[in-house]
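4.2 Preliminary Data

To establish feasibility before requesting continued support, the project team ran the inverse folding procedure on a target of 360 residues. The structure was first converted into the token representation described in Section 3, and no sequence information of any kind was made available to the design step. The complete token record follows.
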């Protein structure tokens, strides 16, 4: 398949690995931010191609994994109310809240449905104006434009039975908080290419400058990742700390201006709890006052729940790259994709699920 197969070419991968072996003279620790990158790394067996001393740790780039238990509890509470349907992407259905997941709530009579886009949720609301439809809006900057567009369309067309439970998170503020707290031990960053395709990478330039951190905007195929690692290692070996764009076929420095505009028309940055990591200043989105009537938490006056992660789950350490999933005592025992204790074992971008499916 064009634009795919060429980035999965074994000969290219081995050539990049040889260049990497020649470039790496010291041990370095790199973090790939996105869970999609983690899955490619493990599925493709890239660790076996890396020179000794080059270590990859997995970052917090799984929006399902960092959605707070409180928001999941709120979604569960809403779907159990008569006349309310909660919609979201498939992964969100199985993520455990403090008492149950949306799927378990559905088994008790709740109305929770999978949709493929926020516009599908809006269509559901338009079909039955007497029924409240809530879209549980989870995702990074990549999915925020579609959510913003759904709210904008609802406002334009006067749909009043559609609302959002907003769980969108922003990557750069969270990375800034993690590196400012000195919690990582990471020396270079592979930034998420899909996020940067929307936002551009100006925010990452500040991160590179302030923390003396080489940053490489990197794609998702094996050759992308090997080239991203190579560029980062070359920066480290030469003492540079700047942003380079490996994913130039999809990412421009300024990102996608139209997508950025619709997001900033509808949303503004706000502090946000990241599951396992605590409150990240400016680490999420909330609806602007002009669109406050579409905020499900205002509309339904939800209770807000006291919430705790299961004692056995170390998702916070996994998301910070401090613990490899197989080192979690519950991995593959109490916790598996069939019976997940934490979101990283559920999500298609979760690091624990990646290790479970692909091993090391
Ligand atoms: S293996 Fe399961 S219990 Fe352990 S950190 Fe991952 S999700 Fe949590």
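Position-by-position output of the design step:
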């Amino acid at each position: 398949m064009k634009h795919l197969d060429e980035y999965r070419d074994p000969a290219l991968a081995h050539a990049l690995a040889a260049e990497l072996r020649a470039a790496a003279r010291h041990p370095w620790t790199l973090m790939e931010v996105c869970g999609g990158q983690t899955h490619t790394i493990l599925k493709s067996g890239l660790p076996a191609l890396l020179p000794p001393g080059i270590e990859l740790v997995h970052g917090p780039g799984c929006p399902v994994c960092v959605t707070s238990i409180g928001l999941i509890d709120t979604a569960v509470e809403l779907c159990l109310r008569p006349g309310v349907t909660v919609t979201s992407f498939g992964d969100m259905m199985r993520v455990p809240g403090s008492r149950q997941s949306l799927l378990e709530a559905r088994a008790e009579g709740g109305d929770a449905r999978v949709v493929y886009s926020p516009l599908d949720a809006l269509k559901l609301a338009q079909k039955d104006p007497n029924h409240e439809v809530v879209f549980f809006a989870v995702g990074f900057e990549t999915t925020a434009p579609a959510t913003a567009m759904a709210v904008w369309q609802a406002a334009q067309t006067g749909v009043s039975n559609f609302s959002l439970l907003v769980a969108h998170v922003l990557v750069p503020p969270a990375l800034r908080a993690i590196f400012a707290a000195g919690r990582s031990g990471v020396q270079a960053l592979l930034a998420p290419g899909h996020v940067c395709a929307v936002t551009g990478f100006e925010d990452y330039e500040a991160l590179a400058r302030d923390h003396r951190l080489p940053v490489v905007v990197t794609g998702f195929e094996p050759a992308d990742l090997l080239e991203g690692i190579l560029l980062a290692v070359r920066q480290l070996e030469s003492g540079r700390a700047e942003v380079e764009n490996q994913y130039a076929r999809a990412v421009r420095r300024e990102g996608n201006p139209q997508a950025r505009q619709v997001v900033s028309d509808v949303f503004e940055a706000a502090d946000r709890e990241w599951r396992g990591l605590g409150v990240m200043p400016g680490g999420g989105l909330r609806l602007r006052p002009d669109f406050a009537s579409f905020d499900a938490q205002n509309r339904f006056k939800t209770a807000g729940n006291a919430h705790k992660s299961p004692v056995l789950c170390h998702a916070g350490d996994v998301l910070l790259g401090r613990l490899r999933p197989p080192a979690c005592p519950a991995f593959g025992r109490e916790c598996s994709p069939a019976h997940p204790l934490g979101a990283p074992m559920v999500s298609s971008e979760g690091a624990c699920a990646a290790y479970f499916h692909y091993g090391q």
